[in-house]
Design brief:
Helix content of chain A: over 70%
Order of helices and strands of chain A: HHHHHHHE
Shape of chain B: globular
Order of helices and strands of chain B: EHEHEHEHEH
Strand content of chain A: under 5%
Structural class of chain A: mainly alpha
Oligomer: heterodimer
Number of helices of chain A: 7
Structural class of chain B: alpha/beta
Number of strands of chain B: 5
Chain lengths: 379, 122
């Protein structure tokens, strides 16, 4: 269908006007073409925006899943930290028990050592008893001799002397038995401490001193049964104590490293949650940013409309130059700018128009919202 | 669940706003102009309408006046989301029954903030 700018055959116009008419009329298809190209821009940007939005939705969904997973990880990490805290607490309790145990062993060892010494000390009393028994026996012998010298009158005295000798013999025998018992007791105590030293040896404790394994000889009088070296047993206990302390220290260090590691994992998971939330928020902002396509579409459509209007005006001029129609159509040319201006909907369009005719030479830029035109207004 | 009806002749606006609102937990229905919206509003029963102003077949101003006549729609919040910035148009929209006026492009955060203001608890 022919538009207002379609060429009409000239009907006797002035030659120059005819030429001008042709030239002006030739511009109108150009304007139509520009309008079509701009329309294509609108369609292209719309397709691109819709494609981008589709992809953004996929990114957004993935970001949402990532945020959910990060949240679950943070929850698990917090639970793990709670468990490790309980382990650390239990570990500290264990260390305290080990320390108490080590002190108890030390006190017990000291008590045993004191006991061994006390037991050995009894040997002195045994020696005394044996001395007394020996002296009594000697006294009894002397009494018997005197009783024999006294003859018949000393017979009763001789019986007493014999009984005393018998008591002396029994005392001596009892003292020997006691000494042997003391010796065995001391040996057993020392051997018990040696056993602990042997355990430390078998455990490969590098702190063990001496050979820890000398056997006792039990019944030797005079040394209180110093059969085994109690010092070795004591050193075995010291080795055991050192080992226990070392285990406690290593456990504490392990728990500390575990707590530190868990703390770092918690920090990392918190950062992951924060980053995921940031990404999730950014995708939302990017979706809102696609509104630019609609804004530019409206501007371009207004430009296309204005180009159509301009094409119509040029067709009117071409007709006037060619002598077709009357000149009344030219009156419309005066209102061209006003018509364009009346079609503006955005502040930016009005600002650009004002700037274009202000002659300042600077770009208008986006106008700031005013009190009359806030960007958000609830009635 | 809060239902929002979006009315706009721009597919880009419908898709972007719909994505933002769906992500924020709203149920969304879309219409490509006022006439399309009038055909759906009775069945959709939106808690909120967000409409463009300049649309073919039925523009936003006419749509507001018509939808306010429907039973149950007298007090439903209706926000205009438009590039239009003329103060006279705002007053016309207010007189027609609009609840608020939002200028495109609007940020997601501001949009959600306004929605929570007009629908407390949304």
């Amino acid at each position: 269908m022919p538009g207002p700018w379609t060429r009409q055959p000239a009907a006797g116009p002035d030659r120059a006007n005819a030429r001008l008419s042709e030239a002006v009329a030739g511009a109108t298809p150009v304007l139509g073409l520009l309008g079509a190209q701009l329309g294509d821009v609108v369609a292209t940007t719309e397709n691109a925006a819709l494609t981008f939005l589709g992809e953004m939705q996929a990114v957004d969904a993935a970001a949402g899943e990532l945020a959910d997973e990060a949240g679950r990880l943070a929850t698990l990490t917090a639970e793990q930290a709670g468990e490790i805290s309980q382990i650390a607490h239990a570990s500290r309790d264990t260390s305290a028990v080990i320390n108490d145990l080590v002190e108890f062993i030390a006190r017990r060892d000291q008590s045993v050592a004191d006991l061994v010494e006390d037991v050995r000390g009894l040997s002195g009393y045994v020696a005394t008893i044996q001395k007394i028994a020996k002296a009594t026996n000697t006294l009894a012998l002397n009494a018997k001799i005197e009783a024999t010298r006294a003859g018949e009158s000393g017979a009763g005295f001789q019986v007493v002397a014999d009984e005393v000798r018998e008591l002396s013999r029994q005392s001596d025998l009892a003292a020997s038995v006691i000494e042997q018992q003391i010796g065995r007791l001391a040996q057993r105590l020392a051997e018990a401490m040696q056993d602990r030293a042997g355990d430390a040896d078998r455990a490969g404790d590098p702190g063990r001193a001496g050979d820890g394994g000398r056997a006792g000889d039990g019944g030797r009088a005079g040394d209180g049964g110093r059969a085994a070296d109690g010092a070795t047993g004591q050193m075995g206990n010291e080795a055991l104590s050192r080992r226990l302390r070392r285990v406690s220290t290593e456990q504490a260090e392990l728990v500390e490293r575990l707590e530190s590691f868990t703390g770092r994992v918690e920090d990392a998971s918190r950062e992951l949650v924060s980053s995921s939330a940031t990404v999730y928020g950014l995708t939302t902002s990017m979706m809102a940013g696609m509104q630019f396509q609609d804004v530019t579409r409206q501007v371009i459509e207004h430009v296309v409309s204005s180009l159509d209007d301009l094409g119509g005006q040029l067709a009117t001029v071409a007709d006037a130059l060619a002598g077709r129609g009357d000149l009344s159509g030219l009156a419309e040319l005066d209102g061209a700018l006003e018509r364009i201006q009346s079609g503006y909907v955005m502040e930016r369009q009005r600002a650009t128009h004002a700037h274009q005719f202000s002659g300042t030479g600077q770009p208008a830029g986006a106008p700031a919202p005013t009190a009359d035109s806030p960007e958000i207004e609830l009635f | 669940m809060t239902t929002v009806m979006l009315v706009d002749d721009s597919p880009t606006i419908l898709m972007s706003m719909s994505s933002i609102l769906t992500k924020s937990g709203f149920t969304v229905a879309t219409a490509k102009d006022g006439q399309d919206a009038m055909a759906q509003v009775a069945s959709v029963k939106p808690n909120l309408i967000i409409s463009d102003l300049n649309m073919p077949r039925m523009d936003g101003m006419t749509f507001i006046k018509e939808v306010r006549k429907l039973p149950g729609m007298r007090f439903t919040p209706i926000l205009l989301l438009t590039t239009e910035s003329e103060p006279a148009k705002r007053q016309e929209a207010k007189a027609a029954g609009a609840t608020g006026w939002l200028v495109k492009p609007i940020g997601a955060e501001n949009l959600l903030k306004v929605i929570r203001e007009v629908i407390p608890g949304a």
